[in-house]
Amino acid sequence: MVLPPSPNICCYLIILTTACLVQVSGGQKLLTLPDQHPDPDAVAYQVGRRVNNASRQMLEEGGGGGCLTGNPIDDCWRCDPNWSDNRQRLADCGIGFGAGALGGKGGLIYVVTDSSDRDVVNPPPGTLRHAVIQEEPLWIIFSDSMMIKLRHELIVNSRKTIDGRGHNIHVTGNGCLTLQYVSNVIIHNINVHHCKPSGNTMIRSSPTHAGFRGRSDGDGISISGSRNIWIDHCSLSYCTDGLIDAILGSTGITISNSHFTHHNEVMLLGHNDEYLLDAGMQVTIAFNHFGEGLVQRMPRCRHGYIHVVNNDFTQWQMYAIGGSANPTINSQANRYTAPSDPDAKEVTKRVDTDEREWTGWNWRTEGDVMVNGAFFVPSGAGASAVYAKASSVQPKTAALIDQLTMNAGVFGQPRDNEPGISYPGGTNAGQVTGGYDGYFGMVYGSGASTTATTPPILISALVTVLYTPTALNLHMPLSLLYTM
What does each C-alpha distance from 161 to 90, 165, 251 come to in angstroms? Predict the structure, then answer.
């Protein structure tokens, strides 16, 4: 059971249903989802161009000895010593299908000062739950390092950025992060782990609506029917179901610079083989480290177009990339390191599908480096001109994978964790430079005690952001995407 739909959700569902009927009645793949890009190869091309340009600038600076890393996302904002004075600059740094995710850009700063999650129906101001359910765009930051133990799933509203930079932020417990029929969400520099199923209770999803939620799956981040989503520099592990799942017609997603460890079914993209709207799913998976203790689904895809570029796959037990229902897989300049098991060397797996059917699927490998006997089985137009545009500017070879993924996961954490998670206590363990000082914005506080070591912000003024319908555009114009 799900929340009774709000008017916005009803409108979105009508759009999705209409789009599905267009596809079915037309007998061919048309634009089936809002914000589905008409030319996904062009998006892959732009990612390659961005990586090449960033890598060239890094080499010109001194071959990696300076601030630049060749990673176009990080190099966009991180070399500015005053980045914390302009956090919303991050929204301009996305790449791939989720490049248009605005998050809370243009909105007020909301500082989370209370790590508790005592009341999921009437969350106190100052808590993360109170921040994410608001209707207006918000850029959400944190007053200190904190462990947020959720009582139930955290339902995130549209136009929100959860920005953990400057502190060591952990989200764990029951339900974890849910993005359902929303748009323009950025989740950055957050640890998400040990998420368990929960539900059968009332949960608030907006200031004006609370509804009954059935039992959740225990995903780390669950994305349903949503678009323009960017997950960057997160560390995910030890959840009951998937670490990240995107289903039910979600599209316009980028998952980048993240670190995945200690999990079985890592990432699911697509609801089921019969769910036709997922043919419009478009996902970029870039600069991630798939590390210790992983088994399968990095990702497991249904339908859609999945661009897997410049990732480091250092461990799997069954396979790395799997799929069914004819997804397009465009694998470029990754490093695949196979396990010692002689029966698990293949990177790819066609799930529950006869070879006579999957030979026509477009699964392509270009510039990938295979280590320890790893091999990728291409199919369909994998070597044909169908990928000509994406191939014309190939991303930098996997020889630079160490450089491109050196900061994967939450900043300041190692590439591979020891078994178990080190939880932050009253200290700022793992804290990196840069904080929230100097901001005018929303600062809420409840009566709960916090471990904040920074003096509270004095609200001598609020930056009032006036926005119009044109400022709330939910996608980036294609002209901007092509000229990034």
Answer: 10, 11, 18
